[in-house]
Amino acid sequence: MQSDVTPANEKLHVGIIMDGNGRWATRRGLSRVRGHEAGVETIRRIVEAAPKQGIGTLTLYAFSTDNWRRPKAEVAALMTLLRFYLANEVQSLVKNGVRLSVIGRRDRLPEGIAAAIAGAERVTAHGHALHLRIAVDYSARDAILNAAAKAAALTSLTREAFSQLVTGEVGLRDVDLIIRTSGEKRLSDFLLWEGAYAELHFTERMWPEFDSADLADALASFHRRERRFGGLQSLPLEPAPSL
Length: 243
Ligand code: IPE
Ligand code: IPE
Ligand code: MG
Description:
Helix content: 25-40%
Structural class: alpha/beta
CATH topology: Undecaprenyl pyrophosphate synthetase
CATH superfamily: Decaprenyl diphosphate synthase-like
Strand order of the largest sheet: 3-4-2-1-5-6
Order of helices and strands: EHHEHEHEHHEEH
CATH class: Alpha Beta
Bound molecules: 3-methylbut-3-enyl trihydrogen diphosphate, magnesium ion
Strand content: 15-25%
Largest sheet: 6 strands, parallel
Number of helices: 7
Radius of gyration: 18 Å
């Protein structure tokens, strides 16, 4: 089988706010933690489906900086799931050509997780089928703030250079589409810089029940939209004046 050699940044960048694990579980009389466990199964399904649906970069919101406000037991369970995911998933990520990056703070994670993340990133570094970015202890406003602090030392600054400081990547494609499950219609501090022109797709489906057909629906709706980037319908964009 010939492998797809299109560079990741020429394919779509999709961000997903994986919401609704808790409600999915409580509605079934299960503990919220059961919902998070089921949510990990969905991650496996969607990571497998994404490259087949034209996605080159997939950014998943797993744990926000504000999620530390949850009860200690729920936070601990989420951290345990992250630990298991890193330990159990790396082999199949390598096999499927997935490069894993984790974005967000690492210094507040329970012991050993930062090292497991670094190990997983190293082992998967050569994957070209999909760039999977998982946001953990992540806040878009903090990412912008930290980039601004670094930029203060520079004498000149372009959008590209600032993007690199915000994302930690050279040439990361802007987010094309942000999907949020569970019926909530907000961004909750996710990809505020990279998603400046992202299309938004909100679905009532809870994250544990979201599947590859739902992903295909979201992408079909995305492809029906007309993206104008401030220009006019179907005319080539004129260059914007420099600052
Ligand atoms: C998303 O599901 C997972 C995390 C935020 C970690 P939630 O846990 O927010 O589920 P709901 O919104 O309470 O249903
Ligand atoms: C956003 O979901 C964060 C993740 C999905 C990881 P939340 O459930 O924490 O967001 P709010 O509190 O409803 O805005
Ligand atoms: Mg939620």
